[in-house]
Amino acid sequence: MSEREDWYDQEIAPKLMELCKACNAHGMSFLSVVEYEPGSRSRTSQFTEDAGLEMTMLLHCSNTVPNLDGYVIGLIRYCREKGIDTSASMIVRQVNGSGEQ
Questions:
Q1: What is the pLDDT of residues 51-75, one digit of tens each?
Q2: Which run of H or of E encompasses 44?
Q3: Model-level pTM?
Q4: Can you give the pLDDT at residue 1?
Q5: In sequence order, what are the residues at sequence separation of 6 or more whose Cβ sits closer than 8 angstroms to the Cβ of residue 62?
Q6: How far apart are CA 59 and CA 55, in angstroms?
Q7: How far is CA 19 from CA 1, 13, 54, 65, in A?
Q8: Which residues lie across from 36 on neighbouring strands?
Q9: pLDDT at 99 over 60
Q10: What is the DSSP track for 53-92?
Q11: Residue 95 and residue 55: Cα distance in Å, rounded?
Q12: How far apart, in whole angstroms, are the C-alpha atoms of residue 48 and residue 24?
């Protein structure tokens, strides 16, 4: 563990978790991503049942970065599962090989 990671774990992570829990207790989704060194990140998150697509996209990005294919494929799957219309997306049409979802 690096000195920065250790400092983050000791000083910052508990504060972010406190904020995360406070937001969630008031019905708000929370996501923070900290890069304490290039390529090394930590995430704190807690989502409500009705979290919006935007927050889900941010969470998915924080899980899949830097794998762009993983991000796009996972996002398409999520949208299909939730019945979210992606027909206006030229990227989705290319991935699917047509204009259909």
A1: 999 999 999 999 999 999 999 999 9
A2: strand 40-46
A3: 0.80
A4: 82
A5: 31, 33, 41, 43, 45
A6: 6
A7: 25, 10, 20, 24
A8: none
A9: no
A10: HHHHHHHHHHHHTT-HHHHHHHHHHHHHHHT---TT-HHH
A11: 23
A12: 7
